[in-house]
Amino acid sequence: MRVVTPGEMARIDRAAIEGEGIPGVTLMENAGEAVARVAMDILSAEGGGTVAVWCGKGNNGGDGLVVARLLCGAGVEAKVFLLADPDELSGDAAVNLERLGGFAVKIERVGEDGGLERFTGMTPGPALVIDAIFGTGFSGSARGIFEAAISSINGAGCPVLAVDIPSGVSGKTGGISGAAVRADRTVTFAAAKVGLVQYPGAGLAGCMEVADIGIPNRLVDSVPESRVYLTTGEDVEALLPRRAPDAHKWQSGSVLVVGGSPGMTGAVAMCARACLRAGAGIVTAGVPEGLSDILEVKLTEVMTLPLPETPRGALSPRSVEAITELSGRYDVLALGPGMSEDPQAARLVRELLKAVEKPVVLDADGLNAVAGHSRVLEERESPLVLTPHPGEMARLTGGSSAEVQTNRVEVALEAAARWGAVVVLKGAGTVVAEPGGSANINSTGNPGMATAGMGDVLTGCIAALMAQGLGAFEAAVAGAYCHGYAADLAAGMDAMIGLVAGDVIRHLPLAMRRTE
Asked: How many domains does the chain have?
């Protein structure tokens, strides 16, 4: 599913109006019809009632005026709460204000001098509130009467339907710097917006629907400069590998997982188990020799490889030759889970990135090992996937977690281009970016995944899919989706709170089967 920024959507609109000859007022009418259909569905479920339509002075408000007119025409009592003087409206919004004059829709002018109490005092209260105050181009903070209006909408005690995007949310980033509408449903137009699929904005959109308003799909695909998509089950179904009837384990994908240190044996164990549950035919865990016996007990189907260790029990650079030689037999190296921040282990990571010619998935302390040493990433010629959470990304880029979270898509794309690697920026709405400029935003997962070990499982998923023949970007996209979907299945079967990484591993085969 295509995802665009507000600036790109504005250019798509302009191309439709100027290049295709589609009148802007027609696009607005189509947008209003799409919202009105959803509004009627909600009203049906609520048993009917009055609809309060909040409108700003721009095109978003114009969409709301269309909705009010169409609802009135369908026999629904609609009231418009206009956050502007009628004379301030222009263009298509002004046209639709004039059209509304022939319908029994009461328009309440709400301004700094009052009018808000006519909404809060509605008796009976509204059955539905429609938010058409700000559009996707909103930035900054809602102030004054706009802030008060948003607060009243959120306190209305009835379903809220947002037009294009909940007011107060940045359509470019999903950021919120003040009051913002909490919608139960959002109808957006032509394409999803970044602010609807990146948090915190995504958390306020409720159920999102992308409505066709008559803009040709080729404009949606060709006008934007960026190539950003929301990953769907259909996308992943087309990517997942199919195992041949006569396949044996070495043909089904092989992964060498290298990591582990005292106190963190679980990370490498979970990564290795996830590799198998995501379809890899054979997996070996290379761990410090002092931990080999422990891993032998933890893992049944995974082979173990004892490796030289430092005095602190971490992996030693003396392991480089053995790991490099063994990696030649495997399809993919998963490097870093539970490795610790021992300086010698960090040196091992950097040397392996130079020496190993097979694809590498780098995670956890493997990422910390290359912070300040980005040249080792840039100089690699073999495929590389990096899986940082926001804190690790901040260390890699020299910024802060807050800066990373402010514009996750742009940060991930810039990092992928700089390092020549696929970057998986983890978190709600995981962003998978590749050096060529494409990015996918993941649509699965839930807050129950905020527990230790989830990243190790994701690393295993991606490594296993690469080992089965997927390209680095495709494996990362599919791995993130299946990882989140497995967590959704686990939460649905048990509960979200108390979800652990092992639950996700257990549900991986079912997630991949259901995706098929």
From this structure: 2
